[in-house]
From TrEMBL:
Domain of life the protein comes from: Eukaryota
Organism of derivation: Podiceps cristatus
Protein name: Out at first protein homolog
Domain annotation Out at first C-terminal: ranges: 135-203
Out at first protein BRICHOS-like domain sequence ranges: 4-111
Pfam families: OAF_C, OAF_N
Family recorded in the similarity comment: Belongs to the OAF family.
InterPro entries: Oaf, Oaf_C, OAF_N
């Protein structure tokens, strides 16, 4: 799992590399990219992280706060060759997932209002378009299109700044930045695949 943030364009990119099962006719691995809007105050500014370097950076840390699961319907495909207009990171982060970059129609509307070229987006088939479209775990035919579901968890990320209080000689109390608060968060992404063969892990959930 890779999480990439492009704060200026308000873009958040998740990349997942899934090891293939050769006995099921899959290639060595499968790559997925999920691109969503990065909301303000969702993560602390990079300038603050640079100033608040933590001791023992190699220590495996536990998140102080567990945030709720977010379930997202990724109903739009992103064209890899044009994706740099949305975020320069897409070219590097999603290079192995050129045909599997997904986003949401709600996020697309936000980016279009900011002047992003709409030609990089393609609305994917939905249940309303294909009445027989099922969830992949319910679909018996591996060569039929279906709605795939993929879940991931970010075990630790800097979500908030910590503030400490100090008192001066005159007794006046003031607060100052003194650390980073960490969070854990899970995501589930639903998206269209042209054949169930691209979503065999969904059988196991």
């Amino acid at each position: 799992l890779t999480l990439c943030l492009s704060i200026c364009q308000e873009v958040k990119i998740f990349r997942a590399l899934i090891l293939g099962e050769l006995e099921r006719g899959q290639s060595q691995f499968q790559a997925l990219c999920f691109v969503t809007r990065l909301h303000r105050n969702e993560i602390i500014p990079s300038e603050s992280m640079a100033k608040l370097r933590q001791k023992n950076p190699r220590t495996v840390r536990q998140a102080e706060e567990v945030r709720g699961l977010e379930h997202l319907s990724m109903d739009v495909a992103v064209n890899f060759s044009k994706g740099a207009q949305l975020s320069s990171h897409i070219h590097n982060v999603c290079a192995e997932a050129k045909e599997a970059i997904y986003t949401r129609e709600d996020d697309v509307k936000f980016w279009l209002e900011k002047g992003v070229d709409g030609s990089m987006f393609e609305v994917l088939p939905q249940t309303s378009d294909l009445p027989d479209l099922q969830r992949c775990k319910l679909c018996a035919d591996r060569w039929k299109p279906c709605i795939c579901s993929y879940s991931l968890s970010i075990e630790w990320y800097p979500c908030m700044l910590k503030y400490c209080k100090s008192r001066d000689a005159g007794g006046k109390v003031s607060s100052y930045k003194c650390g980073i608060r960490s969070c854990q968060k899970g995501y589930t992404f639903d998206y269209y695949v042209p054949q169930k063969q691209l979503c065999l892990w969904d059988e196991e959930t």
